[in-house]
Give the backbone structure.
Amino acid sequence: MTDHGGVTPARETPDRRVDVVVIGAGQAGLSAGYHLRRRGFDPINRAGERARSFVILDAEDGPGGAWRHRWESLTMSTVNGIFELPGQAVPNVDRTAPSRDVLPPYFADYEDRFQLHVRRPVRVRSVRRSAPGRDGPGPDRLVVVTDRDGAPHRPDLVTDLDDPSPETWAARYVINATGTWTRPFWPYYPGHETFRGRQLHVHDYVAADEFAGQRVVIVGAGISATQLLEEISRVTDTLWVTRREVEWETDPAPENFSAAIDKVAERTARGLPPQSVISVTGNYRAPWIERADERGVLVRHPMFTRIEPDGVRMPDGRLEPADVILWATGFRPAVAHLAPLGLRTPEGGIRVSDGRALDEPRLFLIGYGPSQSTVGANRAGRDAVRAIVADL
Ligand code: FAD
């Protein structure tokens, strides 16, 4: 296996030159695309010889980013608040409809309206610095290697290549907007493999009904944990465990929120693993939390010390029986493809300030750290494009 997704370097010569490659077409990537269009960049297949060009590469089969995959009960009224994509309002929708049904068509309309020509499904396997000689003239590009054959996928996209090698791009700038959904975080606890029941991460959660009659241990202190606690406890017995006491945010004032974002931004600039903004603000007492409290199920227990075949061992030595352990333990940034750039700090983050990698200024990470929200993704897309325009 090579650094480049198992593909031999000899077949990775960049075949497409472009000013900006955007990786990912969720909220952050589409915001970047919108601002690129506004600043006079053209999608690669429309760009003339001299025009500034960009391409958006996305691993999904269709529009919507991670919203394509959220569980059914995450409706437009239970999401945390979705900020519309720049320049196009979310249509009036049934607030009880699942977000995964409402948002992908909205994203699809958006891509069409602003003619963003997202290329999909294209997964980026690696990003590296170009090597003079091997990649043609100039050491000034970032080489983006994908899992796609060089042959065009759609006839209306680039058609001048019939090279069967992996599709690669040589970019002046890369805007990474790959989100977190593809990297569910699942901490290890001793005895993990001995459990006779079922363990799953919220990434794979479908609906509460599948747990009826089973005892479910829900792990995690964030919004997903409390939301799923509320709905699963309606159909079966639950036990909620968290590592720390949960801090309830009683005053969701904007200044508290921006102070939290500043704290995440400061961590991210130091190269610490970025925290989600919500993990810093504490938990807002959303309506579902009040409902769970009223029914007496919002009872937090300390984290178990080990997993055993029939349950979890609590710090006081008791065995709590369990049929299911549901890990609502968050997600991590999906940035493995950036590994060849060698940006990872010993602490496990990438040093990023104002959306730009401090150790590789041709790389932007948006929807990362402080911009990991719909509103943050919008702004980060705009700011990355502004910075690129200023550079060029
Ligand atoms: P995504 O929507 O995840 O898009 C990333 C895209 O990149 C995907 O299409 C993915 O397939 C693609 N991709 C990944 N890796 C590659 C690769 N190597 N090559 C090519 N493409 C790749 N935020 C809010 O503001 N409000 C909410 O209500 C809210 N609810 C949330 C609920 C849940 C359960 C979760 C997990 C998060 C929630 N968030 C919410 C945070 C949310 O993740 C962001 O707000 C925003 O939607 C993320 O947009 P994004 O573009 O950064 O990522």
